[in-house]
Design goal:
Chain lengths: 493, 110
């Protein structure tokens, strides 16, 4: 007997509407799954049983009247803990925010609630979303459901692990340099970073404001579409929120890829990428050709420099954004004789090593005498990266690459050398610099039975073509919503 | 040219970086011990050597990008909306008094 926790969002929504399943039963199955797996996974920082049960009961009352509130009616959802939730502790994975109870909901959280979602809890992350493994969390790392000795990726590692394990049907993540797509790839689920501005950042605890974007993590491409349609929309509370049309993406799912031009990024298809990952991605590209797409190789020469530019721009923005943690208005305070001493002691005690490094890196890159050589030059390289993309999209509709150069690595294997951790993001960072949409779709397992993610990139506001290709990749790969060993017993496989 | 993730010529073209880490930590308002300063300074040196590769690309006449999408003058209607109640705003403060955030003295006593 399989658990309702293993249904996809689409299946669960249908079962709820048909009366075959109640929101309370679905929530209970989800909480049971969390109970079964959390001791090993630590995907959640907070599980809010009381509020979740109340929301599920309210959803059932509406269903009893033959109605639904929206596309996520009764669906158990997890939210990365860097999005504020009214009345529910929000820490962003940092000790400096331990015990912080926000007075309001992030706009994306409000959108989930309006669509009928049942919020199960808040998921673990690298502190302030800075990292690629969740090992930088101030509350201990999460583990990968496919091998609990390995990282789930990061920074949205808790969200990806929860969705892979079935302790949430979908989850929200945030992606500054790959923080949705890379953990999705490592956990064998779908992760999507929308065009910058499509989802409001209001209530997202800022890391790097010109790069941050909220997006869905789900088990299928269809569920990613459903979630994105709920959370995307103009928000007057975010000055960078997109003001144009917000199309529906569902029709993309069945359109196929016949006639589409797919470009394989030369710089991300060779040295430095694990052989298993490369061969899995090559066979996906072959299947796209069989499905009628035209394949070509596309070189983006500035790609080599994107990582360097990112590790100046993101820390510079983080050093400004995290200045707000000063021990005055919220969070931790360590006493000192003066304001400056109190602030400096509070920040030393509250920030972990990686956040401290990035703040100092950004402060240096912005400081007098170094600004032009580092931050200013990085911003110009950002322009070159965008120009490379623009030129590439004159000849192709989408670009493809692996999501991550390697599959899930062992816990502790990269924590000693920060630069080796930064290199994990080489394939995902360019889309953030360009503000463009990108998705990771699970396609195969490597020799160690760890999931491999395939990345599709499209021009800004190119979500429709992105989902067309993603749906085809999902079909052609035969992945078919494979479940990790950790939950197979419960799943009845 | 393939991207070299771990080794290769691109990582051998490193430049020497000179950081006054104690000064940077003071600017960032983070109180660190001598040992921490030494360790972080060494790590930042390595990261900055890599980041300094951006200086290799010719960028004459290239405009810097501070925002990924062309977006200017984002206006909203000038409407009064109820703010968060003072008590709620103060509820998360480490210390408050008579409706204000309380901080240590900012001026030296005479």
């Amino acid at each position: 007997m399989s658990s309702p926790a293993d249904l996809t969002l689409a299946e669960a929504a249908a079962a709820l509407r048909a009366g075959a399943l109640s929101a309370r039963e679905l929530l209970q199955a989800t909480l049971d799954r969390a109970l079964l797996t959390e001791a090993e996974l630590h995907a959640f920082l907070t599980i809010d049983h009381e509020r979740a049960r109340a929301a599920a009961d309210a959803a059932d009352e509406v269903l009893a009247r033959g109605e639904t509130t929206g596309p996520l009616h009764g669906i158990p959802v997890a939210v990365k803990d860097n999005m504020v939730t009214a009345g529910v502790e929000t820490t962003a994975g940092s000790q400096i925010l331990a015990g912080y109870i926000p007075p309001y909901d992030a706009t994306a959280v409000t959108a989930l609630k309006r669509a009928g979602a049942v919020i199960v809890g808040k998921t673990n992350l690298d502190e302030f979303a800075m990292g690629s493994s969740t090992e930088n969390s101030g509350y201990g790392p999460s583990a990968n459901p496919w091998d609990t000795g390995r990282v789930p990726g990061g920074s949205s590692g808790g969200s990806a692990a929860a969705v892979a394990a079935g302790s949430a049907m979908i989850a929200l993540g945030s992606d500054t340099g790959g923080s949705i797509r890379q953990p999705a790839a490592l956990c064998g689920v779908v992760g999507m970073k929308p065009t910058y501005g499509l989802v409001s950042r209001y209530g997202l605890i800022a890391f790097a404001s010109s790069l941050d974007q909220i997006g869905p993590i789900s088990r299928t491409v269809e569920d990613a579409v459903t979630t994105l349609e709920v959370i995307a929309g103009h928000d007057p509370l975010d000055a960078t929120s997109y003001r144009g049309e917000y199309p529906q993406y569902r029709s993309s799912l069945e359109r196929g890829v016949a006639g589409l031009r797919v470009g394989v990024v030369t710089e991300l298809a060779g040295e430095g990428i694990s052989p298993d990952v490369l061969s899995a991605c090559r066979s996906v590209v072959d299947s796209l050709a069989e499905a009628g797409a035209t394949i070509s190789e596309v070189s983006l020469p500035s790609m080599e420099y994107a990582l360097s530019a990112y590790y100046l721009i993101a820390p510079a923005e983080c050093s400004a954004n995290l200045a707000r943690f000063d021990g005055v208005r919220y969070g931790l305070r360590v006493e000192g004789a003066t304001v400056e001493e109190m602030t400096a002691r509070t920040r030393a005690a509250g920030f972990g090593p990686e956040v401290t490094r990035r703040i100092l890196l950004g402060t240096y890159a912005l400081s007098a005498g170094y600004y032009d050589a580092f931050y200013g030059q990085a911003q110009k390289v950002r322009t070159l990266v965008i120009q490379d993309f623009t030129k590439a999209y004159e000849g192709v509709d989408v670009l493809v690459s692996p999501t991550s150069p390697m599959t899930a690595f062992e816990l502790g294997s990269r924590t000693e050398d920060p630069l080796s951790m930064y290199l994990v993001d080489v394939c995902t960072i360019p889309s953030n610099l360009a503000g463009a949409p990108s998705i990771s779709v699970p396609v195969a397992l490597d020799v160690a039975s760890l999931p491999i993610g395939f990345q599709i990139m499209a021009p800004a506001l190119g979500e429709e073509v992105l989902f067309r290709v993603a749906a085809e990749v999902e079909r052609a790969s035969g992945w078919n919503d494979r479940r990790p060993p950790l939950v197979e017993a419960d799943h009845g496989v | 040219m393939a991207f070299r993730v771990r080794s290769g010529p691109i990582y051998n073209r490193r430049m020497a970086i000179d950081i006054d880490i104690a000064y940077v930590a003071r600017l960032a308002r983070i109180e660190l011990s001598e040992e921490e300063l030494e360790r972080i300074g060494r790590q930042l040196g390595g990261i900055l050597e890599h980041a300094a590769l951006v200086q290799e690309l010719p960028t004459d006449g290239i405009e810097p990008t501070s925002h990924p999408l062309p977006m200017v003058n984002s206006f909203r209607p000038d409407q009064v909306i109820p703010p968060i109640e003072r008590e709620t705003a103060l509820s998360q403060a480490p210390e408050s008094e008579e409706g204000y955030f309380r901080v240590p003295p900012t001026l030296e006593a005479e």
